[in-house]
Design brief:
347 residues; mainly alpha; two-stranded antiparallel sheet; 4 strands; 41% helix; globular
């Protein structure tokens, strides 16, 4: 099987020292594993960058247990976060006990990769592998000669060529031919150029959260929070999500087994950071103090206030000053005689 995917499995088995990291695989689980492998290739732009690696939930170098090479136990994550994570395990994942390892399935360091691939096929079952190739459309017969030639001529010690080795399975036959021509110095008009789509760390994290939510339904809450913050603005949610360094670390941790409750404070801060949207989708601008540009006019200089001090006068003097000396009219008393009927009781 001259497929880059199976050569990749051979590399992982050699790294773990055993074929048993592939224990329990079915056609369906192998298809899921192939999807993880393809996402890593796409995220790295088929060898153009090295920003992403396949990380283990349960580490493959654990003391009592070793992590299985299953999609449920793997996360495509930024390289720097994977390297600093080391062999920590927060919970979840798939593993087997080191006590269950069988010597006949051991893979020695430096073992010929082709032989390791043949052993993998026998370990998984030829019928299972044949069905996987059919379902996942892993083309082997049409591209056998090209893939075999490239595996023989690409040097895994050279970083750029090692990246090409990892990306062979995701390349078209035409791209493989162009790569072969480039290595032979016959590129001409067929020079090897990989057309890629740029994936940010936020893009990959969202895709991995959605994938892992099929194994851990509680992760759907995190996906909902990330998507809801950008939903009113675009149908292409993926490109609008932008996680800062703290948020990336939190999502990395929760993908590696941390409970959602452990990163709730980070999610709350993310919501607060993106809460600039009203229910009807109107963006509320960030607060800015209102500044009034008022043109001030120069006022004429105020005249000095003159205060006249009055000479003190008594209250009586003030009253005398306002007394009106017009003589008052003399009231006359009228003495006319009035006649009146006698009172009733005087009669």
């Amino acid at each position: 099987m001259h497929s880059a995917f199976f050569y990749h499995l051979g590399y992982e088995c050699e790294r773990a020292g055993t074929l048993q990291i592939l224990t329990g695989h079915t056609v369906g689980s192998l298809v899921a594993l192939h999807d993880v492998y393809k996402l890593k290739l796409k995220a790295n732009q088929y060898g153009e960058t090295k920003g992403f690696e396949i990380s283990h939930v349960i580490p493959v170098q654990g003391h009592a247990f070793i992590g299985l090479y299953h999609a449920e136990n793997l996360v495509v994550a930024p390289t720097h976060l994977n390297r600093t994570h080391g062999t920590k395990h927060y919970g979840g994942g798939l593993s087997i006990s080191r006590n269950s390892l069988v010597s006949k399935h051991a893979v020695a360091k430096g073992a010929p990769r082709k032989q390791t691939v043949e052993r993998i096929i026998r370990f998984l079952g030829e019928d299972v592998v044949a069905e996987l190739v059919k379902v996942a459309k892993i083309q082997s017969t049409q591209r056998h000669a090209l893939t075999a030639w490239l595996h023989d001529h690409l040097d895994p010690v050279v970083p750029e060529q090692r990246d090409y080795l990892d990306s062979l399975d995701g390349m078209t036959t035409q791209a493989l031919s162009a790569l072969k021509a480039t290595l032979e110095g016959k590129e001409g008009s067929r020079a090897f150029v990989v057309k890629t789509t740029t994936y940010t760390a936020s893009d990959v994290f969202l895709l991995e959260l959605e994938r892992h939510s099929t194994y851990r339904p509680e992760l759907a809450v995190v996906v909902s929070i990330l998507r809801k913050r950008v939903a009113p603005f675009t149908s292409q949610h993926l490109s609008r999500i932008n996680l800062n360094a703290q948020e990336q670390q939190a999502v990395f941790d929760v993908l590696h087994g941390q409970p959602v409750e452990a990163i709730q404070n980070v999610l709350d801060e993310y919501i607060a950071r993106h809460t600039s949207v009203m229910d009807h989708g109107e963006r509320i601008p960030a607060y800015a103090p209102i500044v009034f540009n008022v043109v001030s006019r120069r006022r004429p200089a105020a005249k000095p206030v003159v205060v006249a001090l009055k000479t003190f006068r008594s209250f009586a003097d003030e009253l005398d000053e306002h007394v009106d000396y017009t003589p008052l009219p003399v009231l006359q008393v009228h003495t006319a005689t009035y006649e009146a009927d006698p009172l009733p009781w005087g009669r």
